[in-house]
Write a structure and sequence with these properties.
The protein is mainly beta. A hairpin with a 6-residue loop joins strand 10 (133-140) and strand 11. It has one helix at residues 10-13; strands at residues 33-42, 45-51, 59-60, 66-73, 79-84, 88-93, 100-101, 110-116, 122-129, 133-140, 147-148, 160-161, 167-172, 181-186, 193-194, 202-207, 214-218, 227-231, 239-240, 250-256, 263-269, 274-280, 288-293, 296-304. The chain has a single domain (4-205, 292-304), classed as Neuraminidase (6 Propeller), CATH 2.120.10.30. The protein is 1% helix and 44% strand.
Length: 306
């Protein structure tokens, strides 16, 4: 029952098997650059890993078997929030210890895609209540004080809080036949705003540490190759950073570095079984290979140095 929490928009924003349906929910907050977290997908299961910014020091933080998805660093780099077995929100320390799954308050449904608020005291997440109520919610780190943010049928996947704590961004389609677009709203659900056209925005997106841009993946559900782009929160200056073609090859957004000087992203060519992680400047220049992998690496999130 993978990613029940995206039933409303999954048909609109998923294709080619290039993007894990459990989209991440990350925002990068200002700081010094630390380790990069991601989910690694192997036949035995999906686990959370971290590595140094140069690709060395690879560590697996969760068991090989099972499903640990969509890692998100806390603003101080001390914790990682993630989705456990598709439908539960969990938190662990940066070294993988003290893992705890928050008690679900959604009987028969899903809670997933957690992301820290800028002060590190709360989590936004996606909640799906059968048969078709999907929304962005917010709660304390212990699962208390849960409050709904978005209305039904607006969208919910991939919620990220802006660095100033005033807005949450997420993916929505509005109608099943539409491709995904990036939306924002105030944390009380007001001021709903569509940032991009319905051009197939996919998982995942991330706010720049200064809040002036958001990095996204475009054309996730079209014959075109997915590519990395940036856009201002007001919808202006949509700029393509990668230019892969042919449909199979794909550039997929990860996150900004905490110092704002880099964007980490992944390249996939499933037909050739190529999985690589790169970094580049926010304007798309100075592209550098970080590491090659023999398995799919998804939902990259660059954390701060502790």
């Amino acid at each position: 029952m993978r990613r029940l929490a995206a039933l409303v928009v999954v048909a609109a924003i998923t294709s080619l098997g290039l993007v894990a349906i459990s989209g991440p929910a990350q925002a990068t907050f200002p700081g010094q650059n630390g380790r990069i977290a991601f989910q690694g997908e192997k036949p035995s299961g999906t686990a959370i890993y971290t590595m140094n910014p140069n690709g060395t020091g690879l560590r697996r933080l969760t068991p090989r078997k099972g499903e640990a998805l969509t890692p998100d660093w806390s603003p101080n780099g001390g914790q990682i929030a993630f989705a456990q077995n598709e439908c539960r929100v969990a938190i662990m320390r940066a070294d993988g210890t003290h893992r705890r799954v928050l008690p679900s308050k959604t009987p028969g449904g899903c809670e997933t895609d957690p992301s820290f608020t800028p002060d590190g005291s709360r989590l936004v997440y996606v909640r799906f209540d059968p048969p078709d109520d999907e929304a962005v919610w917010i709660m304390n780190l212990d699962g208390t004080n849960r409050q709904r943010i978005t209305a039904p049928n607006v969208g919910a996947p991939d919620p990220n809080v802006s660095p100033n704590g005033r807005k949450v961004s997420f993916i929505g389609a509005g109608k099943p036949e539409r491709r995904g677009a990036l939306f924002t709203a105030s944390l009380n659900g007001s001021n709903l705003f569509r940032v991009t056209p319905f051009l197939g925005v996919g998982f995942k997106s991330d706010w720049a540490p200064d809040g002036r841009h958001i990095v996204i993946t475009t054309h996730i559900d079209s014959p075109k190759s997915p590519n990395v782009a940036t856009v201002r929160p007001d919808g202006s200056q949509l700029r393509m950073l990668t230019h892969y073609k042919g449909g199979a090859k794909a550039g997929l957004a990860g996150s900004y570095s905490p110092n704002g000087r880099w964007i980490v992203f992944r390249f996939e060519d499933p037909k050739q079984e190529k999985f690589r992680v790169y970094k580049m400047s926010p304007n798309g220049s100075h592209r550098k290979l970080i590491r090659r992998f023999h398995f799919a690496t998804r939902n990259l999130d660059w954390g701060p140095r502790r």
